[in-house]
Every structure is written in structure tokens, then in C-alpha cells.
Design brief:
178 residues; alpha+beta; PH-domain like; 8 strands; 44% helix
């Protein structure tokens, strides 16, 4: 699926994912090769794919968070997900867990939390298996500016925000009681 390797002094790698296009998810390839970055989508080309864009890597801004790589070219963003169903499943499990927590169904709340962790693990596995880390490394080697926020910092941010919410609720509750 992906294997960055030296080719004429340039890195090569590919990431197979799903472009979150306006009409829905489209299976695509992000490809870095010979100092150029391309987004290939199914089409009438000889290979069965057509270029959505193909630009020198220095003309693209690349950011990545969790299982998503977003490439911005000419002011247009192209988010590519490793597993497009992941955010939908995560949101649904979060809502189910919150509802179970409010209803006092501790077992259901716990199971929703475990399922959310499994969903995150599936997203991370898909990102790695489909070539995300290799593509980002090849882009960096080719000179593209790449920003990456992995799962660790995202979980830490989520924990900090949750802790802040608990603190605010406690302060408001104590203030209301006194």
C-alpha cells in the first residue's frame, strides 16, 4: 500500500483514504513522488484514476490529526480520512455513553466508553496500515511543511477539557449552594 523509498534523491509514498468531498466520501490516493504531491480520484484516466491536483510539495500545506490528512492547495482544503465511518461511530458512541451516564446506566456507559476506545484504535490502525505515517515522512523528506497532532496530544487535550468542565461545574454548584 505504501513504501517510501529513495528514488532520484526524492522520497515516494502513498496513502489510501477517503476524500470527504461535498457529495460524500470518495476513495482516493495521496501520492508524493519526485517532489510533487498528487490527489488521485477514480476517473477515466488510463490507470482508472485522474488527478484532482498535482503540485510541487512546497505549494501544499499539509496537516494531520488523528486519522486525517488535510492538504491545502491554492486555498482549497482536501481532507482525506483513513476510515470515514470512524468520526460518525465515535460521535454516536459518545452520545450513547452520555445518555447512559445521565440515565444512571453505568454498565451501558462503561461499554460505550470501551467501544469508543476500540473505535479510536481502529482509526489509528487504518491510518497506519493505509500509509499515513509513511506519507507524512516522505512529505517531510521532500521539504513540505507538515503539521501532525497524534492521538496522545488529542487525548490529553480531551482529558484537560473534561477536567476543566468538572472544575467549572463544581465551582458553580458550590457557589449556588452557598
Amino acid at each position: 500500500m505504501s513504501s517510501p523509498y529513495a528514488y532520484g534523491g526524492q522520497a515516494r509514498a502513498a496513502f489510501q483514504g477517503y476524500w470527504a468531498a461535498p457529495g460524500g466520501s470518495v476513495p482516493v490516493w495521496l501520492l508524493v513522488e519526485d517532489g510533487r504531491l498528487a490527489l488521485l480520484a477514480p476517473g477515466q484516466g488510463l490507470s482508472g484514476y485522474v488527478d484532482v491536483f498535482r503540485v510541487p510539495v512546497y505549494q501544499a500545506r499539509v496537516s494531520s490529526a488523528a486519522q486525517r490528512i488535510t492538504v491545502t492547495v491554492g486555498g482549497t482544503s482536501y481532507p482525506v480520512l483513513a476510515r470515514p465511518i470512524g468520526p460518525v461511530v465515535g460521535a454516536a458512541l459518545g452520545a450513547a455513553g452520555a445518555a447512559a451516564g445521565l440515565a444512571g446506566a453505568e454498565l451501558a456507559h462503561g461499554r460505550a466508553t470501551v467501544a469508543r476506545a476500540g473505535n479510536l484504535a481502529a482509526d489509528a490502525s487504518a491510518f497506519s496500515r493505509q500509509g499515513g505515517p509513511a506519507l507524512l515522512a516522505a512529505l517531510r523528506q521532500s521539504g513540505a511543511p507538515v503539521r501532525r497532532i497524534g492521538y496522545g496530544p488529542l487525548l490529553a487535550i480531551g482529558f484537560a477539557v473534561g477536567l476543566l468542565v468538572v472544575l467549572v461545574v463544581t465551582v458553580v454548584t458550590v457557589a449556588a449552594i452557598t
